[in-house]
Queue: 4 jobs
Job 1
Amino acid sequence: MQRRSLGPLLAVSVTALLAPALATSTAAAAPAADPSAASSLAAKGTLDRYVKQKPQWKRCDADSPAEFECATIKVPLDYRAPGGKRIDLAISRIKSTAPGKRHGVLLSNPGGPGGEGLYMPMAMRERLPKSAQQKYDLIGFDPRGVGKSSPVSCDLVPEEENWLRPYKEETFGKDVAWARDVAKKCKEKAGDVLPHITTRNTARDMDLLRAVLGEKKISYMGVSYGTYLGAVYTQLFPGRADRFVLDSAVDPARAWRGMIQWWAEGAEPAFDRWTEWAAERSEKYGLGDTPKKVDRTFWELVAQADESPIEVEGQPNTGDDIRSGMRGAVFGPKAATEGVVELKKAAEGKPASAKKLSAFAGSERPGRAGAAAEVPSDNMTASFWAVVCGDNSAAWSRDPQSYRRDAIEDKGRYPLYGDFASSIKPCAFWDRSAEPATEVNNKAGSLVVQNEWDPQTPLPSGQALHADLKGSKMVTVLGGEGHGVYPNGNACTDGTVTGYLLTGKLPAKDVTCRATAASNEEARKKQKRDVFPGSPLPERAPGRF
């Protein structure tokens, strides 16, 4: 798919549908308004009142450490009309462990869209070495519409949240109806709010939070979707971006339909790598002694499961289940091989282990366990669609038949997952975006960190963001497996990222590290825990960034 221009970025201005440019002349400066706009002074005065908020910090909950504090501030629902409706932004912090060595604040985002970030300071405390914890107040927040930040809902039932659907001629009509119904329910339930749940507005919230905290600049660590949020912040507020680590990166020009399609495109070279890996170990695994034979073994299993699901410990696996599961599993050749071995045993009527199929499990599990009672059960999905559809509605065709054509074509081009990625989504029936998409093209300093074999944001995606961020350097982990790199126990990777956070100095040139057995094992552990990289708390719903 060709990268394409998304048009000129709008100038920085509150009153003309633009970012609220919070002035940098003082630490907590009032928002600067467009002096050419008639309402600029009124807008500036209104935003001044937001900046002057004083968070009422308190212990987040009885089970959390005393030093982990939470508060709530107000932000405008619509930055074009800051005097209108306000929504909550739930924020948290763990203050620097050595105030005398403090450099500033480090915000973070765990991914999504729809991922809760309030508990990220707790995760960051585990991820960062003590020297880095001395440098920063660790700041977390639930993005607007998510978690405790005025959570949105579409009143979706679990069946409606299952959205990665394979194309089939006989079910396509039902899939179109599902996509239309989800968009309709979202509009009916939260149509006045959802147009403002966007990445651009979340970036504006970050800058308002910066001003409330009394900081001239922010440092930031974002994973997956969080890399796009960080990149948008650097585009809207390049002068306020300090040390930005963007881990497992989104290609801005492909947000968001193209990024979902990356899952199919990126899986094909990983699949080819897997067939070679398994063939080299044919004596141990018995899947074939050439890549072509391994390939044939896999697709024969899919065909058999299409005819009659293959049961493993009572769990049926259709051909679509196998393709969907293999899409993510194949980025770790050993786990993928062990899974296919178990499927082959079951297909032959032999006892098989569901545990060894764990790498295939859970192509979609909406929501997360342990969510706060006040958070709607479909909040992650509702906020996901708000961003994925609302950030760039121009990326989504309004013609349902175009999705049929794309799904058929892409299943041929990318047989493992092409139809899942390209078939119809609710965005086909979503309202138009309130703003044009953000074209990322700036010189703010940042560090892009990327595994070579990442199932969610493949290597070319990270390379694209690096190219867009002219002031960035990139760390590539050759042979690195998994989604989410830092920390992984690899001295090259961890040393480069930590050094940047401590000194603010980017490497003189791009860095290439080589994965170790230990660092890839750490990636597999993260996958099995099914959590945001480095986070012990929010559960990752597969099929998210």
Note: The two ends are 19 Å apart (CA to CA).
Job 2
Amino acid sequence: MPQQTTAEQRTASSRDTEPHLARSLSNRHIQLLAIGGAIGTGLFMGSGKTISVAGPSVIFVYMIIGFMLFFVMRAMGQLLLSNLSYKSFSDFAGDLLGPWAGFFTGWTYWFCWVVTGVADVIAIAGYAEELWPGIQLWVPGIATIIILLLLNLPTVKAFGETEFWFALIKIVAIVALIAVGLVMIFTGFQSNAGAASFSNLWSHGGLFPKEFMGFVAGFQIAVFAFVGIELVGTAAAETKNPEHNLPRAINAIPLRVMLFYVGALIILMSVTPWTGFKAGQSPFIAMFSLAGLGMAATVVNLVVLTSAMSSANSGIYSTSRMVYGLANDGDAPKLFGRLSSRKVPQNALFLSCVLLLAGVALLYAGKDVGVAFDMVTTVSAVCFMFVWSIILASYLVFRKRRPELHAASTFKMPGGVPMVWVVFAFFAFLIWALTTQPDTLVALLVTPLWFAVLAAAFAVVRRTPLHQARVAEWKAMADAETAAAGSRRSRRSGASRSDAPSDPARLEATLPQIRGLNDGPSLT
């Protein structure tokens, strides 16, 4: 029986004539989109605090996080390529775990990027104030939101092109930092902190100067630098030749982590000992200023601002596509399921941009931009961990219910099921790490409020005829797949499965009747 998803089972006749998302993102767009997702605001703005709390051990922090998330990405890639009708990981979560998972994953991912966008607006306002002292913080905040809207309203190709150049600017900045830093190291550059040398990595208290708890504290801030790494999964429905382009983008993640995170941090802490870094200051700007390249430092400030714009731009793209998919599944108002004549979900775009105004409000709610940034990034990191966990849970169910598709996959997740549990254990460690510091603990305790709101909304949605029909269909298909998988296992062991709990052929005959229920009213 061919595998189908809830996304394929939308039968409202009015949707047949509506435009669909276009596969307009080429290989270069996807490759740079993946790099842009891997190089977030956390690297440019948060690495100063990460270095100050963990010392040189922060190098291992970034390596470990990147290593673990690589397996999440491989699991996501295998699932997306198992059925090209999946438009994002929200689709396969709903298909494999049940409609509830599609609802919680889709809305939580939307919330993740709204919160991340708020953090980016805060960061942009902070850097704009450094470039133009005395500027009112709301001015760059509002300007950012308007620019993002204008960048995303045309076509998805316009978004891909914009993000391509944003990511390229970030790459050039990091490569330039590494090149300048190497010159300073090999020429024995002198500063108030001493000579630039690789020995600075271990000559100021060793690689773990703040011992184990300092090492743990590094994970709290560093994990936010990786949010958006799964962005290529959101773009799957608009990617040309996904069988070729998605694996290439995902497989390059370890190299990107080693170059852009580990390489840059090694250079930074070799030029200036880790004791010279502090929270709230970008180490990138500090290093160019130290080298006497005043203009370069200003340019890097602009690059850091561009990085935050890139992250926010990705967030606007992700949230609009996720709400679009939720609306088409009946999990969001139908208003957000409409596309413009240019195949862009403009109503969903407007919603996300309006909510980014919360970032402007937060600029005036606290005394310190850095404190506001830390709070929202912690909330975002926890919610992203939920989404990453759902991806791994979907993979476990996929292995159990669809063993033939797993066996036929040409892009299998390395390590299989045991590696999934290793990553789950790592996520548990990250949650514990967030409880060890007062500021991140407060944000961690606030995060469950989002899931409480989501549960209340789901209690309403699950009563609609459309959702009840989707649940009935999902249960029927899950039973059939589980029975078929059990029959195959029994046949392989020589046992008889004449008492299989359900008959796939009979189920196939009844599915049209179940799907007919989907013509009932949806959310309005």
Note: The beta strands are 190-191, 194-195.
Job 3
Amino acid sequence: MVDLNVARVAQDPTPWGSRLLGTTAEQSGVRRIRIQLLLTSSIVVTNCFGIAMVVVLVGFVLPGPPLFTIELLTLNFVVFPLYAALAVVIGIVWGTRWCLRTLQWAIDPDRVPDEFEQAATTAVPMHLVIVEAALWLGCLVVMTPLYGHTDRELITKVMLGIGFSAIVVCANSFLAAEFALRPVTARVLDAAVSRRHQGIGVFGRSVLAWILGTGAPVTLSMTVAVLALLERSVTTTRLATCVLTLGAATLVFGMLLMTQALSAALAPIRGVRRALHQVEDGDLEAQVTVYDGTELGELQNGFNRMVRQVRDRDRIQDLFGRHVGHDVAEAAITQDSELGGEECLAAALFVDIIGSTTMTATRPATEVVEILNRFFDLVVDEVEQHGGLLNKFEGDAALAIFGAPVPLRCAESAALACARSIQHRLSTSDSDITAGIGVAAGRVVAGNIGARRRYEFTVIGDAVNEAARLCELAKNDTSRLLASAATVTDADAEEAAHWQLGESVTLRGRIEPTVLARPRTARSLRPSSSQQP
């Protein structure tokens, strides 16, 4: 009847709240047949149940003249069954044709219903109820005069039986149609611009369940009691039978209808709860299908909006972390960001590609970018493995900080170990990239530098300048890696064992001389006088 190829909801076996409605992986043709069967069977079952209820109430329960007599033989076994059969057939044909015409848009899986189609689709359950109510009203209009013509005392009895049964059948049909059309409602709600209520609501469903399961049987019991008071001929046995039968109906119907109403209310909540567990497990792609037009549908849609916002915020946070470092991003999110910084002990590592100017002049720009990306991927990998922060990229160079903003047990050891790892990977890789690396440590100021409307996290201090000068000097050194002796001395014994101290030099822009340190694995050659900074 309809095609319900709605968006797939990952790992949800019941996207519409019940296994009877299938899954999103089901073929559209199978789903059309499934929903058509649910609608048709609900109409047939509820009406047959209503017919049986009329027979029981009028024939055996309600007080009054006996129904099964020779005078009423034709009415009981010809007229009433014939009308009931015709009514069921007319209801199925009439309701099905109207549904097919109304839901024609849903045959196309990519079709987005317009406002008229949305309103018409939402009104399908109520329209089916109107069809059934008209047929039951016709039964009341036809059968009451016929039975009353035979015995006037049967009028009240027939009217009560048919009227009560009609109320139960119509209400059950409404709830059943709402259930069967959930996949169609999901497409309507997905296309609707406004998320206003498009149903009787949770309160309305609860009231409806109470009216059918409790209110109607109790009202009928009170009516029987009034008739017993007015008609002295009602025996105690018949009155007891009426009370017991209607009391049992109240218990059974009340439980069934309340269960049906609660199931309709709990299904969306269960879907949201299941999706919440997915989000708790880290799956930010979780979502629920919005198929309820009541306040519960707003809950479903609100959850989807919330997850989208969390997903967007997580994506922004991830991009922010990629730009400034995840530790800096976390600190900026959890703490009050302001200009300025704090003094701390940190180690700086400066790495710069050798011969980048020639490479840029002799190779295509796209190839240069690919080379730089591979190089920086290696550097970032090692820096993060050693607990550092890649603070900034400067063309073909990069500055890494150890000990800020997250303190380390020994920032000097981490920086020196990272430098050795980078140098080893560059020297043993197939790439022809070589780089100078400098490492220094000392007191620095780490914080936000810039203007109030635009600033960045950075580290300012003599150690950073010293690392940059050591990197510049390392480009002309055979080891390609130089550190200050003070940094090696402050490192732990295990890391310091990998280094050997060398000569003392005065770095460009500095007053005090710096004693150099090189890895023990590299041959230490003193640079010539032409290589002095």
Note: Residues 236-280 form the longest helix (45 residues).
Job 4
Amino acid sequence: MVRYHLFTKMVLLIVIMLIPVVLLYSYSNKMTTNVVVSELNRSSSNQLAFFQSQVNTSIEELSSWPIILIHDPDIESFEQQDLESEYLNLDLINHVKRIQNKLSIQESSSNWRSSLSLYSASMKRMITENDSRTYDNKELDNANLPGWQVKKVTTGNEERYLFSWYTASPYSARDVVENARSIIKLEFDSTNIQDMLDKFKSNGRRDPFYYIPGTGTIYNRTADIDRSTELLKQLDFTEIKDVDYRTIELGKEVYSVHTVMSPITGWYLIDYIPLTDVLAPIKNSNRLFYGAVACLLFMSFLAAYLLYVQVQVPVRDLMHGFQRLKIGDYSVRLEPKGRNEFSFLSERFNSMVIQIQELFEHVYLEQIQVREARLKQLQSQINPHFFYNCFSYITSMAKLGKTDAVVAMSHNLSRYYRYTTRQEKDLVPMKEEIAFVISYLKIQKMRMSRLDYVMEIPEEMMELLVPPLVLQPLIENAVIHGIERSADASFIRVSGFEDEGRLCLQVEDDGLGMNEEAMRLLQDQLTRPMDEHSGCGLWNVNQRVQLRYGERSYLTFGRSPMGGLKATIYIDNIKKG
């Protein structure tokens, strides 16, 4: 199972808490944006349709003038006149002036700049507000076409469009130019529409303009023509309805394009709004919100990190210190950081460990001193008895005149006591311990001639450092309890080998040996405190190797293949001298 520390848990909790807030805000923002865009499109379409209706009303009003004038009595009577000469008589001149006056009144009734022209087929005269002249039939080429006629006119660098409307009398004439008696022509140019577009744009619109495929475009006077041209390239007018809006991307900008078609002229009124500008406050609000969330997240992470550093890390270090203390590592120390409760705990922990370490070292030294004192006491108890036996042997040999035996005993005895009395080192090379043991065995062999022994210690082990007097108690035990008690026993073997990284020193004899129960009791005595019934030498050897080398070092017993007892010392972490 994955375990998370406090910092990770706090960060996950903060993120989990912020996720619903961000999701809810994102959903709310999306709904708000959709509502704003929808209302904006609806409002823009309504305003565009209203403006289109105003333009259509003005055009319909203009188109009604010829119908009204064609039924005027002066114009109807003028249709019946025939021009007998090239010049007009006084009555006709007065008649023309009345018609010109009515044309002027009609033109001045609208804010649009327009012109009315009366063409009389019988008189071959064209009458306007300020002129009366003959005309050519080529001027009426578009009179046979229905609806509004549009012609593009270029004056210098300025382009404009002329809108023309023809009304003939009688209405039933199929070929207007040939059969009509009178034709009234209404004409206005696109500057009137530009005026309305400028006024419409000043009311807050972006850039309105008129467009009809195949004819051209009427821009307002401050239009962004390049931008409008780019928009027109992306519009498919075969798919556009009478009232329509759609979204178009130009570079990095997104535009909402609105179109309304005029049923009278067939022209499309087009306006576009950059959604980027409209939605800029919402995007700014979004950036502000997400920036605030990011700052809050950063501050939360910082607070979590500070809490982790100031609380979790000291607690973790304290727990780690107690774990090391539990396994006996009294060198552990905590580094106090800052001036807070945890620095106080760290200082008290260090003080506690120092006191515990000093106490353990004091107790350990006392134990070592006690063991050494017991060892010396043991030596003082053993040495006099052994000493008396040796001098008894020397006395007997001297009485018998065996000077060689006296010299050999004296020589080996001096080496024996020199090793025991002058031993100031805690560890000695294996070769010195073996030489001491051989001296002891030679002394015993002089007393007991049947005693024989063998040393099977590899040469590479001779430089290893071992505690002094660690083998002698085992050999003494084999001599006294194994060889002396059995008349048939005579052989002792001392061997050394390596087992699982430990040095093994083994002493075997061919004496009486011990049964399983006796060996178990002897082994148990080594683990209990020493009493008057315990053997001092073997217990002391076991205690010394365990205190110095640890739990993997000890003395154990078993049956020897030679029939007697086998004593084995295991020493771990042995060093070479």
Note: The first strand starts at residue 114 and ends at 120.
